[in-house]
Amino acid sequence: MVAYELFGPIDAALGGHITEEILVIEAVLLGLVVLNIAARALAHRRHLSQAENGDADDLSRHPFHVATNVALVLGSFYYLTVHPHAGMVAATIAIFVLLTDLFEFESRKVEVRREIDVERPKAAIGASLVALLYVGYVTFFYGPLGQFL
Question: 3-state DSSP call for residue 17?
């Protein structure tokens, strides 16, 4: 397969290999998914404390969570240029994680507005776990290691 370098120095850094099977971008994506899960937990705690006021306008998005969502989507789009098949699946999952986070935030606002208990972001947690499973699989069990599983 011909290796294309679309982004020059970025391809040299992120397109390289940690081991024979693991690309740097795969490890970066795995780290971004884990950071996104941690950021979601922080954002949920913040939403719980902001919901105590009872005003839906007091709820705001956590900047760290927004940053990890954007980085996850951009990283998966870059992975699409390095490894087209796995990158397409990872990009699709990352977009679904972003969309579920957007809708979960709006549902938290509705819960505060209707004065009901603020629930955990169940759909976003599920989407993140799917992303973690897929990126973990691609990182550790794809390629030569995958033939034994």
Answer: strand
Which amino acid, 63?
P
Residue 71 confidence (pLDDT): 96
Dig out the tokens for 45 from the structure: 């705690």
How far is C-alpha 13 from the geometric centre of its chain's CA atoms? 21
- The tens digit of pLDDT for each residue in 19-53 reads 656 677 888 899 999 999 999 999 999 999 988 88
Mean pLDDT of 8-20: 61
Residue 123 has pLDDT above 80, yes or no: yes
Residue closest to 45 by CA, chosen among 129, 114, 121, 122: 121
135 neighbors 29 (Cβ within 8 angstroms): yes
Strands (E) located in 1-100? none
Contact (Cβ atoms closer than 8 angstroms) between residue 87 and residue 76: yes
Query: What does the block give as tokens for 17?
Result: 């290999």
Q: Which amino acid type is present at position 16?
A: G
Tokens of residue 32, six digits: 């971004």
